[in-house]
Amino acid sequence: MEIREINSGKADFMEILLIGDEDEAMVNKYLELSMLFALYDNSILTSICAVMEIDSQTVEIKNLATYPQYRNQGYASALLNFVFDRYKENYKTVILGTGENEKTLRFYKKRGFVEFDRVKNFFVDNYDRPIFEDGKQLKDMIYLKKL
């Protein structure tokens, strides 16, 4: 496995970024302001992670996505561990927002994240169409943090 920092041509990764956030306009709001990390296995792109500085103590994972055929093989976990290691020296907290999908929430909580906030109707109010995950419409944004 190899993790590469992407400094230019970030929009070239839109296909995989849209797996983590289905609205291109929303992705474009944070993409250029984020550090982008791509995980390759045998030169094949499997996963991507966008991380943005929120303040001097906090970074936010804006997008973490893995192509469906590479899921459940540890790629997203490897990227999370990379992010934790990279930012632990200079930042106190890593946060992220996700929909109310139990599988996704379990994934993050298993890796040390805890829920600290919820924005009611975030997906309804901020996306131009309903967003579904595992057959369930997402409504609230759940914010998680790891210290």
What would you say this structure looks like, in words?
The structure is a single chain. With 147 residues, the chain is of the alpha+beta class. It has a single domain, classed as Aminopeptidase. It is 29% helix and 37% strand. It is built from five helices and nine strands; from the N terminus they run βααβββαβαβαβββ. The strands form two sheets. A seven-stranded mixed sheet has the order 1-2-3-4-5-9-6, with helices on both faces. The chain has a two-stranded antiparallel ribbon with strand order 7-8. β3 (44-55) and β4 (58-66) form a beta hairpin. The longest helix has 13 residues, at 75-87. The radius of gyration is 15 Å and the shape is globular. The model has no long low-confidence stretch (mean pLDDT 94).
